[in-house]
User: What shape does this take?
Amino acid sequence: MKILCVDIGTGTQDILLYDSEKELENAYQLVLPSPTMRVARAVRQATRERRPILLTGVLMGGGPCQWAVEDHLRAGLPVYATPEAAQTFNDDLDAVQAMGVRLVSEDEAARMGDRVVHLVLRDFDWEALRRAFEAFGVPLRPDGVAVAVFDHGAAPPGYSDRRFRFDYLAQRLAEHRALTVFAHRGEEIPAPLTRLQAVVRTVREAFDGPVVGMDTAPAAALGATLDPRVASWRQCLVVNIGNFHTLAFRLREGQVEGLFEHHTGFLDGEKLDRLLGRLAEGALGFEEVFDDMGHGALVFEVAPMRPEGVAVVGPRRGLLRGSRHPVYFAVPYGDMMLAGCFGLLCGFAACYPEFAPLIRDSLQGAPRPAPWEVER
Assistant: This one.
């Protein structure tokens, strides 16, 4: 059985082609520029050439591509976008037009021809991945696909997107506190998660088998728990320090006892150390993080915990070098960059139990019970 796992971040997209007939360490892997970085580079090239751009496709991750579009507009150059593509920048299309983006219909876009640089927005590019694998003689014919993206969700007008994002995290954990609750079958993606829904639709254009969508940060944290050292801990903190967002979980035997999420850009080592300490103490409150421009905090268990360790993954993990906590840079199956992909495998097993035995056999050294067997 083969499962294509794609963890889409801000800086990179990390790809694992899982094969149940191979040792996990021998599975084919790619670490490539993220879709938003690819679009940003193309926009900046158009800016240098003083050419207008047309954006079509679907809602995808913003950040670098949005900043490039804003620079293009500041340079006095036109930007056209279809409504769905424009939602990449804001769910409120009036706000997108206020940026200076000109909305056009699909028919109008089709008539623009080569007068514009046409860029198709999407987080998942099946054709690009197929060509990349087939260039090395590897046919891309998976039996399942699992994709992770970070999704703020479509907040109602006037409602904070940071609070809305944290509401989703809290709601998912309200009844079951296993990290796999953040994995969804493709047809069961919650309606507010518009970016994840767009990814699944894009996958479905090329693939009609089982699909799982998951949030990136829980996927990375889940993957970190597969490191043998982390798996041996009964109680610990697990932190994913991404380029844009940092999410920390307090875990006891695989169950979430608390969490916080913040913007990485507002953190330094000292502040992150303090937040982790307060999470372990059971004293961290929602406002303490939200009022600092983070998403929030939630503690289910207020009794202090003495963690056996703090497992850290993510491209900005260096923030915790020299920490006062017992930090361990987790390397599940020898590769920190693929922590999210290994978490996606666990999420796939949780969503499709019929495939779980095969996946368990591949995850030598995984904790017992396996992550998808923790009550969810």
Remarks:
- The first helix runs from residue 35 to 48.
- The radius of gyration is 21 Å.
- The chain has three domains: 2-34+127-220+338-373, 46-121, 230-330.
